[in-house]
Design a protein that fits this description.
Length: about 180
């Protein structure tokens, strides 16, 4: 194996003994771990969701734009097709939504499930919001609802033991597939 010859430490355990495990490198996750795209302050000028809304769909990974909310691929997905439904308005909490925003976020979440089922044959979903930093929100200043497609057996040893997610498709390809199917 060329990789082993170039980097003999690539197949060694933490103390240098060789092992038989293959390595899947996911360097894109380091940007999330380091908080590189996390705003320094909670203002809308620093908010990645506000910035995404101002980009074109391909650059922002936007799948669909509604009147008061939009659907975007998660840049650091838990699974392929992991979408987020975000209001355009820079608000932090579900209780701050207008009736129109709340209805559209619900409608877009329902449509996201239908599209993901048709495109990727998702067998289930995790849907929810992490409200506030204490509630687990990575970007607490801008409300966003996660729509994570799931498949039987998708949570195997990789995330549990290897602390690694495997994503079989580039985000830009996933965005194009979902955006085309949204119609």
């Amino acid at each position: 194996m060329a990789a082993e010859q170039e980097h003999p430490e690539a197949h060694q355990d933490g103390i240098g003994r060789p092992d038989d495990l293959e390595r899947l490198w996911t360097p894109y996750r380091m940007a999330y771990v380091r908080g590189e795209n996390k705003p320094a302050d909670p203002s809308s000028e620093q908010c990645p969701f506000c910035r995404i809304a101002s980009l074109d769909d391909v650059d922002g990974l936007v799948v669909h734009r509604g009147e008061t909310a939009f659907v975007v691929l998660n840049l650091y997905p838990y699974a392929s097709g992991h979408l987020m439904v975000c209001p355009y308005r820079h608000i932090a909490d579900w209780t701050e939504t207008t009736d129109e925003e709340a209805v559209e976020i619900g409608r877009l979440t329902r449509k996201a499930m239908l599209v993901l089922r048709s495109v990727s044959r998702a067998e289930g979903f995790n849907i929810g919001m992490n409200a506030g930093t204490a509630g687990g929100a990575g970007i607490a200043a801008h409300l966003h609802q996660h729509v994570v497609p799931r498949w039987i057996g998708d949570s195997n040893f990789m995330p549990i033991i290897g602390h690694t997610k495997t994503l079989p498709q580039l985000l830009t390809d996933t965005r194009a597939l979902l955006a085309d199917a949204w119609q």
